[in-house]
Write a structure and sequence with these properties.
heterodimer; A: alpha+beta; Immunoglobulin-like; 8-stranded antiparallel sheet; 7 helices; B: mainly alpha; Rna Polymerase Sigma Factor, Chain: A; Arc Repressor Mutant, subunit A; globular
């Protein structure tokens, strides 16, 4: 590398470390950083020089919530466990979409693999794409089925959290339980068939946004055959909230 | 405790963090968070944003502590760089600009809001004093020192510095560059 280029590299590194490099120049320099040890070394040297200037910045204790947030983010396993312990007693009497959101969000964060089949592209960059997520509980309030669909997608992805006992020759039918604007129940809509264990999925006749935007709850019944539109569900084996996550 | 002892302890704790020791991360946090929060707060001028940045920074430290050993230098330097870079990312994002847009009165005139951050030139003065490079840095013109201080402590871009100082953009770019060159020379001369 000739002297001029080295000079230029050093100057760009200094402005990058200072923070004054912006726009297209910043993007170009970031690409260079990804591939050049020399550029990275130059930035480190400048960061070291500039960090000395921070010596005079008055210290300021941050609020205790910062550490709590860090702890929660670095210890997902611990948090998941305590969430489960917390879930059991609460969910039995739970109602309201807010709780549904909190619960499903916690679960979904803990199980990102459920979303691996979702739309790629721009949505991949976000932790979680905009989705409808339903968590269905059994009679003892144990989370049993996780159903999800991207907001504008037709595909429903299913994860069976606990195997379901299905009599031979019967099927598990997933229903949307919509409400009108006043909170009055509307006729249930059959969505598709759920496997007894493992994973599964099916395509809905329309997008989640069209079918599920007024659906606060989902239910699963045991049927002789898949239900058709207009059918009435029998007793629900599993029920739970359906939440919008965005 | 002397600065060098602090550094040794911090470096040891970071090595433990790299092995997945949460208690070590807590010690790193206790030793450095107030200073790092101060750095973020100067740049962002909002406690909530500075707290988010500090939280993100420590989550990064948790995942990247292994990188630290590969980097020669003081652990505090490494931590400050992580925090500053994250704070600068926030400053550069459009949403922050929108949220912190100056309030306007009914006729659309921008109302002046008070910036209660300490004067950045004063901070630079204290820093160069502490680093024993004051006489060397004093050879720099005041406007050059001022533009370097605004860019470093408040995270301003060239054009924001130019606006603040009511100076042409081209001049400010040259001033900042000379400020950086002078800092480099002074630190090297001082050893």
């Amino acid at each position: 590398m000739n002297y001029e280029r080295r000079e230029l590299m050093d100057r760009l590194a200094s402005e990058y470390a200072l923070g004054t490099l912006r726009g297209p120049a910043l993007r170009r320099f970031r690409r260079l950083l990804a591939s050049s040890d020399l550029a990275r070394d130059a930035v480190r040297t400048w960061e070291r020089r500039l960090a000395t200037l921070a010596v005079s910045v008055p210290a300021e204790p941050p609020s205790p919530r910062v550490w709590r947030g860090i702890e929660a983010r670095i210890a997902p396993q611990v948090r998941r466990k305590s969430l489960w312990q917390w879930l059991k007693p609460v969910l039995g009497v739970a109602c309201g979409v807010i709780l549904g959101v909190a619960v499903t969000l916690g679960l979904v964060r803990g199980m990102p693999e459920v979303f691996t089949t979702l739309d790629a592209g721009a949505e991949r960059e976000q932790a979680l794409p905009q989705s409808y997520v339903g968590l269905l509980l059994d009679a003892e309030s144990r989370p049993t089925v996780l159903a999800s669909s991207t907001r504008h997608g037709k595909r429903v992805t299913l994860k069976i959290l606990r195997p379901i006992d299905v009599p031979a020759g019967k099927v598990l039918q997933l229903w949307a339980l919509p409400q009108d604007a006043n909170g009055q129940p509307l006729a249930p809509i059959p969505l598709g068939v759920v496997p007894a264990q493992g994973r599964g999925g099916f395509d809905m006749p329309d997008t989640a946004e069209r079918l599920l935007s007024n659906v606060p709850r989902l239910g699963i019944t045991v049927q002789d055959a898949p239900a058709s539109p207009g059918d009435t569900p029998g007793d629900f084996l599993l029920q739970g909230h359906c939440a919008k996550l965005w | 405790m002397s600065a060098s002892t602090d550094s040794t302890v911090l470096a040891d704790q970071l090595a433990r963090v790299a092995l997945g020791d949460r208690a070590a991360l807590r010690r790193v946090y206790e030793m450095s968070s107030a200073h790092l929060f101060g750095v973020a707060l100067r740049i962002l001028n909002r406690r909530d944003l500075a707290e988010d940045v500090l939280q993100d920074a420590f989550v990064s430290v948790w995942h990247r502590a292994g990188d630290y050993r590969a980097v020669a230098g003081q652990p505090m330097t490494w931590l400050i760089s992580i925090v500053r870079n994250k704070a600068l990312d926030v400053v550069r994002s459009a949403s922050h600009r929108y949220e912190t847009a100056l309030p306007e009165d009914d006729e659309g005139r921008v109302l002046d809001i008070e910036d209660d951050r300490p004067d950045p030139l004063g901070l630079l003065g204290e820093a160069v004093e502490a680093l024993a490079i004051r006489s060397c840095m004093d050879r720099l013109e005041a406007s050059h020192r001022q533009s370097l201080a605004l860019a470093y402590y408040h995270g301003l871009s060239h054009s924001e510095v130019a606006e603040r100082m009511a100076a042409p953009l081209g001049s400010v770019k040259a001033w900042v560059r000379r400020g950086l060159e002078r800092l480099k020379r002074c630190l090297e001369a001082q050893g």
